[in-house]
Amino acid sequence: MSGLVPRVGRPPRQLSLRMRIALLAAVMVGLAAAGVSAAAFYVVRGALYADLDDQLRQRAATVVASGVGQRPQTLPDAALYGSDIRVELVDAQGGGFLIRNMPPPPVGREELAVAASQAVTSLRTVHDMRVLAVPAGGGSNLALILAQPMHPVRHTLAGLSAVLLLVGGAGVVLAAVAGATVAGAGLRPVQRLTAATERVASTGDLTPIPVSGSDELARLTHSFNAMLGAVAASQEQQRRLVADAGHELRTPLTSLRTNVELLVAAGDGAAAGVGASARDGAEVEDGARSGGSLSETDRKEIYDDVRAQIEELTTLVGDLVELARADAPETGHEPVELTEVVERALQRARRRVADVRFETALRPWVVSGDSTALERAVLNLLDNAAKWSPPGGLVRIDLTLDGPGWSVLRVLDEGPGIAETDLPLVFDRFYRATEDRCRPGSGLGLAIVKQVAERHGGTVRAGRGPSGGALLALRLPGGPG
Questions:
Q1: Is domain 331-481 in CATH 3.40.30.10, yes or no?
Q2: Cβ distance 478 to 409 under 8 Å?
Q3: Which helix (H) or strand (E) holds 46?
Q4: Residue 89 gets which letter from DSSP?
Q5: Would you state the pLDDT for residue 277?
Q6: Are 398 and 473 in contact (CB under 8 A)?
Q7: Dihedral of the alpha carbons of 420, 423, 426, 432, in degrees to the nearest 10
Q8: 401: which of 87, 200, 386, 459 is 20 to 30 A away, CA to CA?
Q9: Taking Cα atoms as reference points, which of 139, 94, 95 lies closest to residue 112?
């Protein structure tokens, strides 16, 4: 029985950035409008209620001043300034005298407390009416109660609420439209940048994007163009590395193939009379095909050449791998004692070269970096100095301070030195001086030194030492050990 394949639903479609900006603008304006409307409503509401209370107090004061406590019948209507006000005199027991021919105002404990002189005044809202109680005056134990309906105030507040709601709603709609418009205009550079990114991903075309303006999006476009330039430079560097590596590998591989074919032909007895030199590949191959057998001396020389070519290929491949590692993203660094790195590299260099003396003058110095890469760089400097030193020559290594937070490792030899025209080029990949082309090497050793120095925030330089030999200096940041 086959299992059921669960149906995978489509992910929910997300809103575009333009719509999200429009919604955000609408929400923010809506919140602001709601806050402003609420504040305006409560301010106006408070003002209307305060005005209503002030009017009641003024009318009560006018009525009390007219002597209503002694002569209730003599109160003129003009003293109340309104036909909807209810007026009554109440004693402490709740008995009352209705002054106006209207329904009596609400009377409760608060009003009776004023009549019994237990409270100075009373002001409260009862059944949509604002009720005020004050002493009637004139020496009487009566309370004057005035009540006025609140529906005019509530009607005014209802109209204000409708106006604020309409204005706020219109503001939200306008804010959404304006947000969408502004977002559309502002996102055009982003759309161009997106199209350019898709173009790069689909075609590999690294043409920079035209930049206009100086705002944040323009700076973003500048950064994107800088990234495109870095990618283009990296691709060009990779192409040069592959081309140079292929050129350097072609010569030893051709010579190695010729020597191997010569040995195979001699072993099979199919060749007679061969030349001894493996470097003249065509001549050796013609000799092998013309007949003859290899002598023991010729065979040993060919074996030596094959061994040397294999070692040259091994060195070249190792240098290429080291360059690939140097081009890779940086890994975490750790504190490294540079003096220990130099000592380890010296031990390896002494094993490789027996006829060159090494002299050191070191001081403790700690670098944050990769111990293996630093040791490879120092060893390349020592190998280069030993290669150019005469038999019995001296290579001096010193580690000194070079300003606050910097040290410089100098390697000086007693060789012929570096020509002035070669000084700016000795750290380039596969570069070899004219007089160096007959010596073993790949032309990558000093290029590795330069890359290691740059990975550790340092620099390298080449010059002439006091004795006329080469001076190679590796400058690195760090601190005393």
A1: no
A2: no
A3: helix 17-65
A4: E
A5: 41
A6: no
A7: -10
A8: 386
A9: 94
Q: Nearest 5°: CA angle at 36, between 32 and 37?
A: 115
Please check the confidence at residue 76 and state whether its pLDDT lies above 70.
Answer: no
In the sheet with 86-91, reading across from the earlier edge strand, the strands are 96-98, 86-91, 142-149, 129-135, 122-126
CATH of region 19-157: 3.30.450
- Asked whether the beta carbons of 455 and 330 are under 8 A apart, the reply is yes
- Which long-range contacts does 74-77 make (Cβ < 8 Å, 24+ apart)? 75/99
Q: Distance of CA 275 to CAs 265, 268, 305, 308, 362, Å?
A: 13, 17, 13, 18, 52
| Mean of all residue pLDDT scores within the chain | 78
Handedness of CA 189, 195, 198, 199 (dihedral sign): negative
Residue type, 320: L
Opening angle at CA 99, ends 94 and 100, nearest 5: 125
**Intervals of CATH 3.30.450 along the chain:** 19-157
The pLDDT of residue 127 is 84
Residue limits of CATH 3.30.565.10 in the chain: 331-481
Q: Can you tell me the distance from the alpha carbon of 85 to that of 339, in angstroms, rounded to the nearest whole number? A: 103
